[in-house]
Design brief:
There is one protein chain. This protein has about 450 residues and is an alpha/beta fold. The chain folds into 3 domains: about 10-125, Fumarate Reductase Iron-sulfur Protein, Chain B, domain 2 (Orthogonal Bundle); about 185-235 and about 250-320, no CATH class; about 325-440, 3-Layer(aba) Sandwich (Rossmann fold). About 50% of the residues lie in helices and about 5% in strands. A 4-stranded parallel sheet has the order 2-1-3-4, sandwiched between helices. A 4-stranded parallel sheet has the order 6-5-7-8, sandwiched between helices. Helix 3 packs across helix 7, helix 14 runs parallel beside helix 16 (about 215-225) and helix 19 (about 280-290) runs antiparallel to helix 20.
């Protein structure tokens, strides 16, 4: 088979708009194949990289990998060159939104041999209604929680899942996490603090799942931080923007990023740490915001916010390394209890999942990390009916067999999507690392 370098000028003109915003040098890829071997979904990111190197933008847009990538960042984590096929595929999926792409064609959809509308690839693969719903998950969860338990009953009415399957594209076997009342912010404000706050204030970046589905995660994190000597305040924030960005709604994600940078910058400038429990949300501040916002002033503010944003395990382990962790793990939990910890994909790619492992061991647990890539859920990917079986296969590749092989161990996670996936396919309850740390406290 012979691959020919593209001689169509419109494709060459589009390449910088794909690579430059995310600082990716596609020509550094030497086709080693590690990304393809590691992909939990058996996709071919290496082939997309090669097509881009050859300037074949349209062929990369037509490749199944571009549209079936779950953005788990496993490929980024294993790339010896520090490249990210997943980020490039995300840029390809939103290429039709870029001004340079719009300028590449005339009103009839053609210019210098360009295809009849780059958005035809998006129309062929995207489920627009589902994308809008998932992108609006924070607002919908607010409503669902306000109406609970009625909302939970309605979601489980006979036939409701079939309607979701055929109309919304959400697989009929999936169940959405239950909404709770009172919400985490309501419980937070009604609690009695567990410490004197002598070490200063930290801001808790409370995510959608924490607020409306798993408030126990937030309460556990609050108690651990307070017993470590900190005064905990809820961050003044809107949705992090990850749901919108994952569905290709870049403008909406950028709007949310600008709002959060404006709200968080002043406290970040003063040196306050912004601590989060959900990797995909908190790491938006660090990994995506400096690229999403525009203008030198706002980008500098985004970098300040990014510099103060830490996952709770990073924050506590940083204190441990400094010898400043004022926590005594001598609670009533069974000593030497086995824990199987599964790291969130973004935590492993952008942060460091070993912080969680160190803390669990410090707390007295006999903890080991699951030797597994993505659990298969990857945000909303596993809910989508066309990806349900590949989501199952990704989990069966390594994680689910390890969970089943440790029937007596607690299963610990950092991500809410990991929790939902493990419980759905193995029937095992899993808990956030913060909840296990709280159990080990006096």
């Amino acid at each position: 088979m012979t691959l020919l370098v593209s001689d169509r000028g419109w494709e060459d003109a589009l390449l910088p708009g794909i690579t430059e915003p995310i600082a990716q040098n596609i020509y550094a890829c030497n086709q080693c194949g590690k990304c393809m071997a590691a992909c939990p979904f058996s996709l071919a990111p290496q082939q997309v990289m090669r097509l881009l190197q050859l300037g074949q933008v349209e062929a990369s847009l037509a490749h199944d990998t571009t549209w079936n990538c779950a953005y788990c960042l496993t490929c980024e984590a294993v790339c010896p060159k520090g490249l990210s096929p997943a980020r490039l595929e995300r840029e390809l999926r939103t290429l039709h939104l870029k001004p340079s792409a719009n300028g590449a064609r005339q009103d009839d959809g053609h210019s210098d041999g360009s295809p009849a509308g780059l958005d035809r690839y998006y129309r062929a693969h995207a489920h627009r209604l589902r994308a809008k719903l998932f992108a609006s998950i924070h607002r919908l969860s607010q409503i669902g929680s306000a109406l609970a338990p009625l909302s939970n009953w309605m979601l489980n009415l006979p036939g409701a899942k079939l309607v979701s399957h055929h109309v919304l594209g959400i697989h009929k076997a999936r169940s959405l996490p239950a909404f709770v009342r009172p919400t985490f912010p309501e419980r937070f404000h009604a609690r009695s603090p567990r410490g004197d706050g002598h070490r200063g204030t930290v801001l808790l970046f409370h995510d959608t799942f924490m607020d409306f589905n798993y408030p126990g995660t937030g309460m556990a994190a609050t108690e651990v931080l307070e017993k470590a000597g900190f005064r905990v305040e809820l961050a003044d924030m809107v949705c992090c923007g990850r749901p919108a960005l994952s569905k290709g709604l870049v403008a909406e994600a950028a709007t949310q990023a600008r709002a959060n940078v404006a709200r968080l910058w002043e406290n970040a400038r003063k040196g306050l740490y912004i601590v989060g429990c959900e990797p995909s949300c908190l790491l938006m501040l660090r990994d995506e915001y400096p690229e999403l916002v525009e203008g030198p002033e706002l980008r500098e503010k985004a970098r300040v916010v990014a510099g103060q944003a830490l996952l709770i395990d990073e924050f506590l382990d940083m204190l441990r390394v400094r010898g400043e962790l004022e926590l005594s793990f001598d609670g009533t939990s069974d000593k030497n209890r086995a824990v199987l910890f599964h790291g969130h994909c973004h935590q492993k790619a952008v942060a460091d999942a070993t912080h969680s492992l160190e803390l669990l061991r410090l707390a007295g647990y006999r903890a080991e990390m699951a030797d597994a890539p993505c659990c298969g859920m990857a945000g909303t990917y596993g809910y989508e009916k066309e990806h349900y079986e590949s989501s199952r296969a990704a989990g069966e590749r390594a994680l689910f067999p390890q969970v089943r092989a440790h029937p007596d161990a607690d299963v610990a996670v950092m991500g809410a999507s990991c929790r939902q996936q493990i419980e759905h396919f193995t029937g095992r309850r899993s808990r956030h690392v913060a909840e296990l740390l709280r159990e080990a406290l006096p």
